[in-house]
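Quarterly update from the structural biology core.
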Amino acid sequence: MKILLLLLIVSFSFAINLQKPMIYKGEESLEGWIMSEKLDGIRAYWDGEKLQTRKGKKIYAPKWFLKNFPKFELDGELWNKRDNFENIQSIVMDKTPTAKWKNITYNIFEVPNQKGDFFIRLKKAKNWFEKFPNKNVQIIKQIKIKNKSHLNTYLEEIISKKGEGVIIKNPDKEYISGRNPYILKVKKFKDMEGEVIKINISKKTNVLKSLTIKLQDNTIFNLGTGFSKDVRIKPPKIGSIVTFKYYGLTKNGKPKFASFLHIRKD
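Predicted structure, tokenized:
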């Protein structure tokens, strides 16, 4: 019981220390803001000793991958290419790391709990890895936003290349943990996670017809589209957390035009 309680405390503490984006509504003033591609990989927090997922699970990265990592915190994405989430997840979340890690890079987008604005914080990471190189580490490129048209053009470019979306932020702000209005995610669609509470199999074809999903606010709905042939044959287990995309909510608070994206293991 004590061990379980300790794990819950550690996990909770980790979560509140992470910076989390809010949703871009299109009404915000973007003067002086910057943008970068939102990579669809596994978010990884470096606490100075080890890598962890956004929920505090240990990531079993090879020792050679972590060569020259600093004693200060880093926040980034384990990633290799667009439209490849499931493959990235299978590599990164394996408790026995394989040679496939050579295809993964750690893409830094923040240096948590450091003094100064965003560029000062990011410079700390840049300076470190210039002095102590690691070929697996990259700093995510940041682009100054000229106007909303510039942002929309960049978003369309990312989407056309099968990317997920864009992150925009006010670089003048000091580090703020939790959700805040100074860092926003921009997408063509919204996404959400939910727990699988029932698997609905078609009597005619004997494969997955839909999943009954429970959201954090206890809303329950059926998710019936977006499944690959493999997922229909081997559906997520009850209790699994899945990510789906949707386009707004109905008057009853249920996701509109929801479509399955992937199972989350982080």
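Residues 1-14 have pLDDT under 50 and may be disordered.
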